[in-house]
Design a protein that fits this description.
The complex is a heterodimer of chains A (340) and B (156).
Chain A lengths: L6 H9 L3 H12 L5 H8 L7 E7 L5 H14 L4 E7 L8 E3 L14 E7 L7 H14 L4 E7 L3 H7 L4 E6 L6 H6 L8 E4 L7 H14 L3 E6 L2 E6 L13 E3 L8 H18 L1 H29 L4 H10 L5 H10 L6
Parallel strand pairs in A: 1-5, 1-6, 2-4, 2-5, 6-7, 7-10
Antiparallel strand pairs in A: 8-9
Chain B lengths: L15 H10 L3 E5 L8 H12 L3 E4 L6 H11 L3 E6 L4 H14 L6 E6 L6 H6 L4 E3 L5 H15 L1
Parallel strand pairs in B: 1-2, 1-3, 3-4, 4-5
Classes of the chains: A alpha/beta (340), B alpha/beta (156).
């Protein structure tokens, strides 16, 4: 709901650590309010300092509990922590129940922590862009760490993982056999794997299955090449420092194993910087984001410049098989009527 | 506001894509919390579900929330509405404290609703503190949705 406050005042207050202004600013940015563009422009020079960590995994693996424990562990080392917890929206009503805070009660009352729940707001794309922007606001507000938690299923989660420098994939015993681990593309984005609930039976089987699945994938590595990441055969140069994805075990409810997770995140960050992959990832991330925003803006611009039913007319023609979608788009951007 | 004025969006019912997107970007955010020590969260969950089905984004924080936790969550999540469910009888102790904290955080424009077991004679006192509505057992969830939409429309 719009509550009018000057955007530049909000930005200034948020940069000065006023939490209410920060919360309002996030709402503006998430809603893509008209003045959020101005806000992001003012914030941009202040970004780039936070360590961004993505945490993803199947429902029920204990992501929120792990985020809670991870935030507490980072706080004990005097780092400030912001958490962006993303849950699905209902495809029917557009509403959502966001329940990640239930597991984060331990963080209440700590002024060095800021938790924000986000709904993914449907499948119209732009979730990655909205997340980027919310993370940017928190980064600019000066948090040392921004933890981004998503349910790990589907492309949008992969995109979000690419917002972060380090992606932690959370698994738990009893979540499925080793074929699940291979087919789930989510392992490919993992920089650190955490097997949570490690006090449960079957933990060794889970670790073994994950290790086996990772080893299958070790024939390739991602390399920066002309501004994009490509897969190259894993015949490494002798001095190349490979990142071996660690598989760590935690019991997040008891804070067991969290020091190792923090250490792995630090090591991975150091690895990214030393190998030059950090810069490469950032470049690729910005490139992807720019393309996405441009696509979005062009659609809006095109729609605004044409008759209200222009798109519908073409949809009808495609349904009647008078024109195909690819030719229609070509004709549209040429400014002509689509040919039959 | 709906017309997307000022951002060059030329919205119209004939633009389902943009229309849907713009609609989906304006959400009522609600914090549903259970202050105090009773463990009966069925009602709170029913309300959370009903508000979700009405298209709202509901931040559900679970059982045994302190007034401080509730005020802090409301601030961080920038909610429009707080729904409090209390069945322990401690409402006359908890709600004044919550209202005081909201006031201290300058969250005066947040709509506060109370549900659960609230004796009729306490309702005037609660409304005096700034509670917008009290909803007892058997309330039609649509009545709560209507209350929220109408109160927020009037606030603007």
């Amino acid at each position: 709901m719009p509550r009018e406050e000057s955007i530049s005042v909000l930005v200034e207050q948020a940069l000065n650590g006023q939490r209410r202004a920060l919360a309002r600013l996030i709402t503006r940015v998430e809603n893509r309010a008209p003045d959020s563009v101005e806000a992001l422009a003012l914030l941009h020079p202040h970004t780039g300092r936070a360590t961004l960590v993505g945490i993803t995994g199947a429902p029920g693996t204990g992501k929120s509990t792990l985020v809670n424990a991870l935030a507490r562990t980072l706080r004990a080392r005097t780092f400030t922590v912001a958490i962006v917890a993303i849950d699905p929206s209902s495809p029917f009503s557009g509403g959502a129940v966001l329940g990640d805070r239930i597991r984060m009660g331990d963080l209440a009352g700590d002024r060095g922590v800021f938790i924000r729940s986000m709904a993914n707001r449907g499948s119209l794309g732009g979730l990655a862009a909205a997340t980027h922007d919310v993370v940017r606001v928190l980064d600019a507000a000066g948090f040392d760490y921004v933890l981004i938690e998503t349910v790990g299923a589907g492309q949008s989660e992969v995109d979000i993982a690419r917002t972060a420098y380090t992606t932690v994939v959370v698994d738990a015993p009893g979540m499925g056999d080793d074929v699940q681990a291979i087919k789930a593309g989510i392992l490919e984005i993992a920089d650190v794997i955490v097997v949570n609930k490690a006090d449960r039976p079957g933990v060794q089987n889970t670790v073994r299955a994950l290790r086996a699945a990772l080893d299958l994938g070790h024939r390739f590595r991602l390399t920066g090449h002309h501004g994009s990441l490509i897969q190259t055969p894993a015949a490494p140069p002798p001095d190349y420092d490979f990142w071996t994805v660690p598989i760590l075990q935690t019991v997040a409810t008891e804070y067991t194993g969290l020091d190792e997770v923090v250490a792995a995140i630090h090591q991975h960050g150091a690895h990214l910087r030393e190998s030059g992959i950090w810069a490469e990832r950032e470049r690729q991330r910005i490139e992807t984001e720019l393309a996405e925003r441009l696509r979005d803006a062009l659609l809006v611009q095109w729609t605004a410049a044409h008759a209200p039913d222009a798109l519908q007319t073409i949809v009808e023609r495609i349904i009647k098989r008078e024109v195909d979608p690819a030719s229609a788009v070509r004709a549209l951007i040429d400014g002509n009527k689509p040919e039959k | 506001m709906l017309a997307g004025a000022g951002i060059g969006y030329n919205l119209d019912a004939n633009y389902p894509y943009l229309m849907e997107r713009w609609m989906s970007e304006q959400k009522i955010r609600v914090l549903v919390a259970k202050p105090g020590l009773d463990g009966h969260d069925r009602g709170a969950k029913v309300i959370a579900r009903a508000l979700r089905d009405a298209g709202m984004e509901v931040i559900y924080t679970g059982l045994r929330q302190t007034p401080e936790m509730i005020a802090e969550a409301a601030l961080q999540e920038d909610v429009d509405v707080i729904g409090l469910s209390i069945l322990s009888g401690a409402h006359m102790a908890l709600i004044p404290r919550i209202m005081e904290l909201l006031h201290a955080e300058q969250l005066n424009d947040v709509l506060v609703l109370v549900g659960g077991i609230i004796p009729d004679e306490d309702i005037p006192a609660l409304k005096n503190m700034g509670v917008s509505g009290v909803f007892g057992p058997g309330t039609n969830t649509q009545a709560i949705v209507d209350h929220i939409t109408s109160a927020l429309t009037h606030r603007q």
